[in-house]
Design goal:
The protein is of the alpha+beta class. It has 10 helices and 14 strands.
């Protein structure tokens, strides 16, 4: 695939990577491959140019992605029994947005509902592809994003689908051989993601998630290394108590500083629980981490009641204040099979009764949906990476009806009739075939 680079764009308030206690940064979406050393790329047929995208649709998609992220976080946190959790909403939304233009019927409707979008699938793909920023390389901020489609050699993908990918993501196709060499294909896909994330995301797909039945794999890889605009001094870091949900209070390595930050606080009206929020900008001013901290004992109720409009109001209320800030250092990973979470969000037809006829004529179904993410926050800034993937598998041809056995070895009825619906011409029974 080919790298794409665009200039910096203004930050958007919606579209968040939610980290642990709902720390967030703006949506990082778009595409541009870093898998240049992988298999050759087959481009969409014809000349496809990137059409203009309505800014209102891009803004709506950023907000929808943030809402999708809240759903993911709540779903994964429920299964994680309150453990640290990090997800990349934009990563998975982009993977599903690459798949959506090939879906039809209930399959497309359920995916769109889970993604919180009412846009036409092509419009949604274009809007996801237009989200920014996409790429940055510098001493202060490094941001890389790659989206790739890996297809079974010889699979006849719909030309209109390929054109949509090209228009929305500057996307071509990596041909690999899942059918004959699933282990080799899996290694190729995983290696590309690992390389794109500076080695932070390894083995995105497990052995059972890429098999000989896989026909397509869609991947998104995101890597961010950013320094704080106002860094924490190492000498101010000290062990301080941290109140865990289970009531214990261990001493943890905690940073501190005093300075001017965008800050908000509230209680009651938004989610019924007191909270404080602060925004920590990264160098360059195009990215930031937002921390939302419910009052002691209120975390579970707060996060359960939080939705996207409420999150928008919290972040929209941030104002410049002098803040005495402490923040624990943290570094953790999250890896998960996202199929159960997607099913809980109503995505079922894609797995059970799929219609991806807009993608290819082959009978295909959504198989594995996976994500691995990591985040590290210290005095200097943040390093975070995520890999998201979806595996599309071939369905077996409809099974021939089982052979049944009927031995007429007992009394029976018979009728002679017009099969088109006429009344029986004759009706009788046979209890002794030898009787005259």
């Amino acid at each position: 695939m080919t790298k794409r680079s665009t200039g910096q764009r203004s930050r958007r308030p919606a579209g968040l990577l939610l980290v642990g206690v709902l720390a967030a940064w703006p949506a990082l979406a778009g595409c541009g491959s870093t898998a240049a050393d992988g298999p050759p790329v087959v481009r969409a047929s014809g000349t496809v140019s990137r059409p203009p995208v309505d800014p209102a649709q891009v803004a709506a998609t950023a907000t929808a992605t943030s809402a999708f992220g809240l759903d993911l976080l709540k779903g994964l946190s429920a299964d994680a029994a309150g453990r640290n959790t990090v997800v990349s909403p934009t990563g998975l939304a982009t993977v599903l947005g690459m798949l959506l233009p090939g879906a039809r019927g209930a399959t497309a409707q359920e995916l769109a509902k889970a993604l919180h979008t009412g846009l036409d699938p092509r419009q949604y793909a274009l809007a996801v592809g237009a989200l920014g920023p996409k790429k940055a390389d510098g001493d202060q901020v490094t941001l890389r994003r790659s989206d790739d489609l890996w297809a079974q050699q010889g699979l006849a993908l719909d030309p209109e689908y390929l054109d949509t990918l090209a228009a929305a993501f500057d996307e071509g196709v990596h041909p690999v051989d899942f059918a004959k060499d699933p282990a080799g294909a899996r290694k190729t896909v995983n290696t590309a993601v690992e390389k794109a994330t500076e080695g932070r995301i390894k083995d995105l797909f497990g052995p059972k998630q890429i098999t000989g039945d896989t026909r397509l794999a869609l991947t998104d890889a995101l890597y961010l290394k950013a320094k704080w605009a106002s860094g924490f001094k190492h000498e101010n870091t000290a062990d301080r108590p941290f109140h865990k949900p289970d009531g214990s209070t261990p001493a943890v390595s905690t940073m501190s500083q005093k300075g001017g930050f965008r800050y908000a606080e509230g209680s009651g009206g938004i989610v019924g629980e007191p909270w404080q929020a602060v925004e920590l900008p990264y160098a360059g001013g195009n990215l930031a981490m937002d921390l939302i901290v419910p009052a002691q004992g209120g975390f579970t109720a707060f996060t359960k009641g939080l939705d996207q409009p409420q999150l928008d109001r919290i972040l929209g209320g941030l104002e410049q204040r002098n803040v005495d800030l402490t923040l624990p250092r943290f570094h953790f990973d999250t890896a998960g099979d996202l199929v159960p979470v997607l099913r809980s969000l109503g995505v079922r037809a894609a797995f059970d009764a799929p219609d991806f006829t807009g993608l290819a004529k082959d009978r295909l179904a959504l198989g594995a949906v996976v994500q691995k993410a990591t985040v590290e926050v210290d005095e200097d800034g943040t390093v975070a990476a995520a890999g998201s993937g979806a595996g599309i598998v071939a369905l077996a041809a409809p099974a021939a009806p089982d052979t049944v056995q009927l031995h007429v070895d007992r009394p029976f009825l018979f009728l002679i009739r017009d099969p088109a619906g006429g009344a029986p011409l004759f009706l009788g029974q046979v209890t002794d075939p030898q009787a005259k």
